[in-house]
Every structure is written in structure tokens, then in C-alpha cells.
């Protein structure tokens, strides 16, 4: 369950000290920032994907992202850290995180090139399932009945959402489904490994991003030089410089700010709560995708998505049962008092004269 009580650790968001606020206010502020930056990032990504030739080289897209993240993290440490602070976590930890980050982002980028964007996001919304499994295996956590039911609902909803997509999407590719599933497994591992590193070594967000993404960029550069088509990808992107490089820079900037906020959630509220928030933002991104971009639609999307959303609600309720029950009861009591007051006024108006 999310801890809503005061904690001794300081909470900062982009240099702003939130320690004086209650845990609930801290959670709401950081979560809102996650939603704003990641929804913006999703919108820009779909704008990039509208240009079909750019889908040819997903590895290059991932490499450009990693380079942008590295530059942004280094810039942050120069501007906001009075000096380059000594690295706290061992380089081996960042080397492992970099591998899983490549797997998560690289496979996800390869999948989105082959799938309908809402379907891709719907799969990513269900990464609570592998995260919970990863938490049990890596951190030894245990979950309740609500979490099990949440996994079941998300799995069923996801199956029917994918079946609907396979019927009405002319470009549906089963390989994209396997790629995004592998990305989810890597995502489950990285969230728990990051949480363990943040709690054990207490590195700053900029350190975590700088070393994991810079090492990841080196991995990707070596891979593309020997096994990829780095030269062809560069000139293909150069054909559309605004839609490719400039949009990817904005995409990476929004993503960098969002990753900072997610790391703050992981640090202060845990990996599962962070995934719950990012899952909710994916729901908003899916709705925005159908509104902003023309694509086929069927009502099976609607009810299958509702089943997934119900699973997300069950998971959130299972993690915050006492808080939600208390808050719901207080709202119900207030509404009951107001309703009774209005009823009394309507029945006995002469008593007020």
C-alpha cells in the first residue's frame, strides 16, 4: 500500500523541495508531472510514426533517443549540480540496467513500427503483470487477491483488444505482439533493478540516467556499426530532418523529464505504484491517439479496454484499500449530510420562518 504518512527522506522535483507537503500531495504533484510529460511524448512519437519511411530503422531511433537522454542528463548535472558529483552506484549496476533499458526501449520501438499505436500502448499498459512477477522473484514481494484478479482482467482484455486489432487493421503483424511482450518482460526487470539500486546506493536521477543511457548508447552504436545499417539510417532520417531529428529531440526532452518524475515515484513510492501511474497515462495516450489521428475503430476496442481499465483499478484498490475506503466513506458521509439537510428544508420550510 502507498505510504501516505510523513517520511524522513527529502523529496525534490526538478530542484523544488516538496518535503513540507504531505505524502498524498507529493504523490499527486509527481504523478501529474508524469502524465503531462509522457502524454506529450506519446503524441510526438505518433507524429513521427506517421511518416512511414522512418519506421524502417527502429534501432537507429532508439540510438538517437539514448544519445539525447545522455546529453540532457549531462547538461543537468553541469547546470544544477554545483560540480560533477562522484558516482554512487557501481558501473556494473549501470551496465546491467543499460542492457535491460535497450531491451525495453529497443523492442518497444521495433514493436510500435509494426503495430497499431493504441494496441502497442494497450500492451504496455499491462506491464503490471510482469512487474509483479519480477517483484516476487527479485524483491521477494507478495501480492493479494485483488492483484491476481487485476492480472486476470488485464490478460483477458488484452487478448480481445488484440483480436479486434487483427481483424480491422490491414497492417497487423504478429511479430510486433511478440516484440512488445519481450519488451514488457525487460521492463519488469528494469523497474525492480532500478528500485533496488535507488534504495541501496541512493544515486541522483541524473546519475542514473546519464550512466545507464550513455552505456546503452555505446552498446547500440557498436551493434549498429557491426550488424546494423547506421549509414543508411542516418541518410534516410536526414531526408526528413524536421520530422525525424527535430521531433525526436522534443520527444526525448519530454521523455527525459517524464523519466525523472518516474524515478522520483520509484524512489519514494516503489516500482509498483510508479507502474500504476504510467499505466494510467497510457490509457490517456490511447484515447488521445483515437481522437487526434484517424484510424479504424470497433466497439470491441471499447469494452476490451474497459476490462483492462477495471484490472488497473483492482490493482490500485488492492494497493491502497484502506486509504480508498476511508476517502470514499468520507465523501459518502458528506453527500448524505447535504442530501438530508436539503430534504429537511423541503419538508419543514415553516420552521425556518
List how many beta strands DSSP finds.
Answer: 2
Which structural class should the secondary elements be placed in? mainly alpha
Round the Cα radius of gyration to an integer and report it: 23 Å
Order of helices and strands: EEHHHHHHHHHHHHH
Number of helices: 13
> Roughly what fraction of the amino acids lie in strands?
under 5%
Estimated helix fraction: over 70%
Query: How many strands, which pairing sense, and closed or not: the largest β-sheet?
Result: 2 strands, antiparallel
Look at the structure and give the mean pLDDT.
79
Distance between the termini: 51 Å
Low-pLDDT parts are 1-8
Give the overall silhouette.
Answer: globular
Q: Largest sheet, order of strands side by side?
A: 1-2
Spell out the blueprint of helices and strands.
Elements: E1 12-13, E2 16-17, H1 23-49, H2 58-80, H3 91-112, H4 117-125, H5 128-139, H6 145-168, H7 174-201, H8 205-227, H9 230-239, H10 241-269, H11 271-292, H12 299-319, H13 321-347
Antiparallel strand pairs: 1-2
